[in-house]
Write a structure and sequence with these properties.
The structure holds 2 protein chains of 2 kinds.
Chain A (H helix, E strand, L loop, with lengths): L26 H13 L4 H30 L3 H13 L10 E6 L6 H9 L5 E9 L6 H13 L8 E8 L6 E3 L8 E2 L1 H11 L12 H15 L4 H15 L12 H12 L10 H14 L2
Parallel strand pairs in A: 1-3, 2-3
Antiparallel strand pairs in A: 1-4, 4-5
Chain B lengths: L1 H48 L14 E3 L29 E14 L2 E8 L2 E8 L6 H8 L6 E10 L12 E12 L9 H4 L17 H6 L1 H4 L3 H23 L3 E2 L5 E2 L11 E4 L2 E5 L4 H9 L4 E9 L12 E10 L5 H21 L1 H10 L8 E2 L2 E4 H10 L12 H15 L3 E5 L22 E6 L2 E9 L3 H10 L8 H5 L8 E7 H9 L20
Parallel strand pairs in B: 1-6, 4-6, 7-11, 14-15
Antiparallel strand pairs in B: 2-3, 2-5, 3-4, 5-6, 8-10, 9-10, 11-12, 12-18, 15-16, 16-17, 17-18
The chains are: A alpha/beta, B alpha+beta.
Chain lengths: ~300, ~550
């Protein structure tokens, strides 16, 4: 590179006495620069890491400063904590937590998965369910009221992370979930709601990063089809497929219980046409095991 | 000369005209008397002989005509009347029955005459054809009965092979045997019932587009009220009142009646009507608020009142009336105003359920003319906090302050958001900011910004606004001072709490507005039988 000639002649600038010299704001950085310059020849890596350390420290200071300001103003400290919490819970995924969601279900097609999840997550996570009856269904029937009672039995623990669910009995074709009214994109089907809840629920049930991810998805897809079977023949085929998937494992997809088990179990519950006779011995055994957790 | 002659001619003819018109009037009067006598004698004859062979000229003489003025002379107890909506029941098939109704339409064609008889919202087709007992004269007479006249017919109920699409009774028709006019309508009607009851579907290019505008309807309200939709609206309105009374009575409420002439304006000085009261002036009550609260202080525990409320607001909008029916309730509670909130919300759900289950015919009839989505609600009703509502609005990109009142567009938008998420047209918004509520509202114990007050919404419009009232006189004075209200003007109000008063809360709704929103109508004048607004004092 060429050196540039100074355009202006060098004047001696006399500072007027009425002015104060300004404090260098980022003095620390300046020193780092100097340091980096100095160590340039010897070790670049050291310099960079030192600088990074410095920057991190500065950030920390800044954060504290912000927190102080917030505290002094008495502003929404909650908001700040919230984001920290979610970023931790989602493993860095920038995802808004589901504050409250609406699930529309027909009283003839009871979303048992909700109760199953609530029971399974009892010690880790709270699902606070409020139940409403839509004007399109005058009467919800015995089974649905039974289901309501069982839901109410599971206590709401305020200390646990929680998601609010409004369950609305409605004359609708599919079980559907609505999370935000502004982007009205309902999620159809019980298994898809299980998938969605699986993401916000406790760590152990988040299956996206698990090696069994595909297996679990496949099992949930079978459940979806199973619920749409009209003939006993097609149902039997689906049960065979499930039996094959289960094999000699303790649960679907391994030794740990997962949302797949929740899905299969609640789907079986919803189909009274499937009697214990239709199930294979392995499935019956499995059902007993899962029942202990889901308590349907 | 010519002009003069003409003048004379016109003058003489005028005199002549006057003379003839006088004569004609006398003649007419005589004739009318004759006709009436004749009709009377005919009716008497018919009653005496049951059936008359008739003279050779008119085979059905005595089987049609005018009943004359019914002065309760005869009883005709043998005539069994059946209402139109019951005619299609199997027990009347091929039976001869009597029906009284209005001529909805009539069409005479040579030897046949088709009449559509209307009774309230039900219509039935009647047919009259020349045969051995029905003369040509009778058919002609029937064809000339003006629309909207009231007639009595004796007819045979006959089932028809093809459905009659234009009537509500589609499976049967009436073969008329006798026909008497009870009360004749003017041949010229200011509006046609058919036009007034035509469905309002703007996107149907082929349909007839004749409408009756709102003012014509209101000027001729009795004709307008005969349309099926209006019949249904006011029956449903009666239902709202009945359900309100029944539900609250079952909950242990007592109905009270409050004075409508009051000495001081109850809510602020503005928008009250002043009336002269002997040597002084008085006001018309804007709300029974004060009296409801006094009833609570007098140990009535739970009270409601149904009565006229007056607002001198000079606003000509689709949802303001200067006089409307207020359904107000007030209730003492034990410890938490949510006891009252749930009572009010449950009352609404009860009303909606009652309407859904018992008034489906009326709702259907209104929908025929004024299309609207059915009213949806949840049970138990959805209760959101004000802060949650604000959050939903912010998520939708609306900037609104924590202590800011909901503007009308925001109110509507929030209604749409709630509808999209929960699919309900009715919801409760709880804990409004204290700053935007009246001085007598109890502040929230946990957060000084908010108050123990609530609004309820139907189809995104506020229908009731209520709160826990301050029942402690000293605290009330403090709050009033805070709001800069002259204590001397509300001394009586404050005094009423000096002798001990239980904690209480309540609210009031406008009946017309509830019916309008329940049915999804666009104008409150449609749900007030004889509406009063700044521009209308008649009929």
């Amino acid at each position: 590179m060429y050196e540039l000639n100074t355009l202006l002649p060098e004047y001696d600038i006399k500072l007027p006495t009425c002015m104060y010299p300004m404090k260098v704001l980022n003095n620390s950085r300046a020193t780092v620069d100097v340091k980096a310059d100095a160590s340039n020849s010897s070790n670049d890596v050291d310099g960079v890491s030192a600088r990074q350390e410095k920057v991190l420290k500065q950030l920390q200071e800044l954060k504290e400063q912000m927190a102080n300001i917030r505290a002094s103003l008495g502003l929404c400290q909650k908001g700040a904590q919230h984001t920290v919490q979610t970023s931790l819970r989602n493993g860095g995924l920038r995802e808004e937590p589901l504050h409250d969601i609406v699930i529309n279900g027909h009283p003839n097609f009871i979303p048992y998965a909700l109760l199953a999840l609530k029971n399974a997550w009892k010690d880790l996570f709270t699902i606070d369910v409020k139940i409403f009856k839509h004007s399109t269904v005058p009467d919800i029937g015995k089974e649905a009221s039974e289901f309501e009672k069982k839901l109410a039995q599971v206590k709401v623990d305020p200390s646990k992370p929680k998601v609010n669910v409004s369950l609305i009995w409605k004359n609708c074709e599919h079980t559907e979930m609505i999370s935000s009214p502004t982007m009205y994109v309902p999620i159809y089907g019980e298994v898809n709601i299980i998938r969605y809840l699986g993401r916000v629920g406790p760590e152990a049930y988040r299956y996206e990063n698990s090696p069994n991810c595909n297996e679990i998805d496949a099992v949930l897809d079978i459940c979806y089809q199973l619920l749409r079977c009209n003939t006993s023949k097609s149902r039997a085929a689906m049960l065979r497929a499930l039996n094959l998937r289960l094999g000699k494992q303790k649960y679907f997809g391994g030794d740990e219980i997962s949302v797949a088990d929740i899905g299969v179990h609640s789907s079986l519950k919803r189909l009274p046409a499937i009697t214990p006779k239709d199930l294979t011995p392995t499935l019956t055994e499995w059902r007993k095991r899962v029942q202990l957790v889901t308590q349907l | 000369m010519v002009a003069d002659k003409e003048n004379v001619a016109t003058a003489s003819s005028a005199v002549e005209g006057e003379a003839t018109s006088k004569k004609a009037a006398k003649k007419q009067a005589k004739e009318a008397l004759k006709a009436a006598k004749k009709a009377e004698s005919k009716a008497a004859n018919m009653a005496a002989n049951g059936e008359e062979a008739g003279d050779a000229v008119d085979v059905s003489a005595g089987r049609y005509g005018s009943t004359g003025l019914i002065q309760s002379k005869e009883k005709f107890e043998e005539r069994k009347f059946v209402s139109v909506n019951e005619l299609s029941q199997p027990e009347y098939r091929d039976q001869v029955v009597w029906v009284r109704g209005r001529v909805h339409t009539s069409r005479a064609k040579g030897k046949q005459c088709f009449l559509v008889l209307r009774q309230q919202s039900s219509t039935v087709q009647c047919i009259l054809a020349v045969n051995e007992r029905v003369s040509k004269q009778m058919v002609k007479f029937s064809g000339n009965v003006s629309k909207e006249s009231i007639i009595d017919v004796q007819a045979k109920v006959v089932t028809v092979p093809n459905k009659i699409e234009s009537c509500t009774e589609q499976t049967i028709e009436l073969c008329i045997e006798q026909l008497f006019v009870v009360s004749l309508a003017k041949p010229q009607l200011p509006l046609q019932i058919e036009d007034a009851s035509r469905p309002e579907n703007a996107d149907d290019p082929e349909g007839l587009n004749i409408r009756v505008n709102q003012d014509t309807r209101l000027d001729n309200r009795i004709l307008d009220l005969r349309t099926p939709a209006n019949q249904a609206i006011f029956r449903l309105e009666a239902g709202v009142c009945r359900l309100f009374r029944d539900i609250l009575t079952a909950k242990g409420f007592t109905e009270i009646h409050t004075p409508k002439i009051i000495s001081a304006a109850s809510e602020g000085g503005a928008n009250v009507f002043t009336v002269s009261y002997f040597k002084e002036s008085a006001y018309l009550a804007q709300s029974p608020q004060l009296y409801k609260q006094m009833a609570i202080a007098a140990d009535f525990d739970k009270v409601y009142t149904v009565g006229a409320v007056f607002r001198a607001e000079d606003s000509n909008t689709h949802r303001h009336l200067t006089e409307f029916v207020g359904l107000d309730l007030e209730m003492a509670f034990k410890y938490h105003y949510h006891e009252v909130l749930h009572t009010i919300a449950d009352t609404f759900t009860g009303i909606f359920k009652g309407l859904r289950d018992n008034y489906s015919r009326e709702i259907e009839a209104v929908n025929q003319q004024f299309k609207a989505e059915p009213f949806k609600f949840l049970e138990p009703p959805l209760i959101l906090e004000f802060a949650e509502g604000v959050k939903m609005l912010r998520e939708a990109g609306i900037e609104t302050g924590d202590e800011e009142d909901l503007s009308t567009p925001n109110e509507k938008l929030l209604g749409r958001l709630v509808k999209a998420k929960y699919d309900t047209d009715f919801y409760v918004l709880d804990k409004f900011p204290l700053a935007i509520r009246p001085f007598y509202t109890m502040p929230d114990p946990n957060n000084p910004i908010y108050s123990n007050s609530y609004d309820m919404f139907m189809r995104g419009e506020e229908i009731i606004s209520g709160a826990q009232r301050i029942h402690d006189p000293d605290f009330l004075v403090e709050r009033a001072k805070h709001h800069g209200i002259d204590i001397t003007k509300i001394a009586a109000y404050i005094e009423s709490f000096r002798f001990g008063c239980p904690p209480h809360a309540g609210g009031g709704i406008g009946m017309e507005r509830v019916v309008m929103l329940y049915l999804g109508l666009d104008n409150i004048r449609k749900t007030s039988m004889f509406p009063r607004d700044p521009k209308r004092l008649t009929p």
